[in-house]
């Protein structure tokens, strides 16, 4: 019995010392365009979070899973929501709401317990008002029904518009998109580490340079966005799924 108690104690210490996992689950491509905009947006957030973790030496790790490989397989789908401290779930829209992949996925996993887990979401949409917020709301409400706590970047849902614009080409991201990816990544990081402690959360947010009142941090000019150019170039170079840049980006997906 003593050995069992000691073994459990050692396991608890090891678990406490292990970096907490932030797990991205992506459901793409778009059923409208066939493009992987949601995948590239999610990887943009993932890469931003990796940089925050490295720069601030945070006890976190981030992984990225292709949910489309398992959305219609019950056991494989359930395994995707087990074991992470934070789930970041994303995809594209269909008919002013969630695409089929996401709906089918949640049919399999909606009875999985997520108490103690925090969940957030992102989406890509053709236009500013074509269902992105509805798709994110579907994800967050379903996660709440599974016992999770949900959050976003303050009051902003992370919808990235990739069509119906004057200027950027279809499927292209902008420096302002990358700024939001970065702020979202920082919010994910402090949420993962705060442990529900408001004072700790506030201290972490200050340290990481973010706030639920994100509008107070908006860049004042284009020069402030220059540091995001490498990320934007990498994501946009991968717009063509036949490109070497896209294949290189896919190496980040487990």
Please tell me about this protein's structure.
The protein has 254 residues and is an alpha/beta fold. The protein has one domain: Flavodoxin domain (Rossmann fold), CATH 3.40.50. The chain is 45% helix and 16% strand. It is built from 9 helices and 7 strands; from the N terminus they run αβαβαββαβαββαααα. The protein has helices at 2-17, 37-56, 74-80, 100-109, 132-145, 175-194, 198-208, 229-237, 244-250, and strands at residues 20-27, 60-66, 86-94, 97-98, 118-125, 149-150, 158-161. Strands 1, 2, 3, 4, 5, 6 and 7 form a 7-stranded mixed beta sheet that branches. Strand 3 (86-94) and strand 4 (97-98) form a beta hairpin.
Number of helical stretches of at least 4 residues? 9
Indicate the proportion of strand residues.
15-25%
CATH architecture: 3-Layer(aba) Sandwich
Instruction: Identify the CATH class.
Output: Alpha Beta
Shape: globular
Kindly state the mean pLDDT as a whole number?
91
Based on CA atoms alone, the radius of gyration comes out at: 18 Å
Kindly report the CATH topology.
Rossmann fold
Report the structural category. alpha/beta
The CATH homology group name: Flavodoxin domain
Q: Quote the distance from N terminus to C terminus.
A: 40 Å
Poorly predicted spans: 4-15
Task: Tell me the number of strands.
Answer: 7
Which series of helices and strands comes N to C?
HEHEHEEHEHEEHHHH
Helix content, binned percent: 40-55%
Q: Largest sheet, described in full?
A: 7 strands, mixed
Number of domains: 1
Topology of this protein?
Elements: H1 2-17, E1 20-27, H2 37-56, E2 60-66, H3 74-80, E3 86-94, E4 97-98, H4 100-109, E5 118-125, H5 132-145, E6 149-150, E7 158-161, H6 175-194, H7 198-208, H8 229-237, H9 244-250
Helix pairs in contact: 2-6, 2-8, 6-7
């Amino acid at each position: 019995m003593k050995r069992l108690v000691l073994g459990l104690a050692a396991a608890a210490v090891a678990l406490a010392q292990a970096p907490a996992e932030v797990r991205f689950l992506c459901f793409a491509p778009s059923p409208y365009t066939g493009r992987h905009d949601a995948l590239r947006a999610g990887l943009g957030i993932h890469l931003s979070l990796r940089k925050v973790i490295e720069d601030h030496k945070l006890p976190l790790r981030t992984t990225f899973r292709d949910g489309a490989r398992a959305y219609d397989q019950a056991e494989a789908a359930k395994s995707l929501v087990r074991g992470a401290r934070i789930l970041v779930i994303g995809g594209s829209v269909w008919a002013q709401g969630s695409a089929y992949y996401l709906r089918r996925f949640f049919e399999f996993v909606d009875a999985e317990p997520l108490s103690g887990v925090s969940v957030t979401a992102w989406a890509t949409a053709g236009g500013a008002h074509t269902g992105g917020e509805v798709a994110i709301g579907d994800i967050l409400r379903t996660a709440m029904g599974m016992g999770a706590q949900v959050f976003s970047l303050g009051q902003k849902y992370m919808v990235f518009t990739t069509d119906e614009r004057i200027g950027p080409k279809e499927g292209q991201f902008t420096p302002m998109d990358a700024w939001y990816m970065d702020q979202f990544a920082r919010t994910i990081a402090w949420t993962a580490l705060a442990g529900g402690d408001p004072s700790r959360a506030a201290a972490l947010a200050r340290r990481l340079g973010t706030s639920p009142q994100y509008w107070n941090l908006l860049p004042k000019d284009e020069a402030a966005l220059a540091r995001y150019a490498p990320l934007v170039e990498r994501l946009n170079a991968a717009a063509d799924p036949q490109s070497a840049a896209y294949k290189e980006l896919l190496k980040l997906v487990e």
